[in-house]
Amino acid sequence: MESIEQRVKKIVAEQLGVAEAEIKA
Length: 25
Fold this sequence. Notes:
Elements: H1 4-24
InterPro entries: PP-bd_ACP
Family: Belongs to the acyl carrier protein (ACP) family.
GO biological process, one term: fatty acid biosynthetic process
């Protein structure tokens, strides 16, 4: 079972990835 911290970090990483993709596009 993932801890809340791990889940938050995963979500943040995904959001940053999307932001980077949009900036580079």
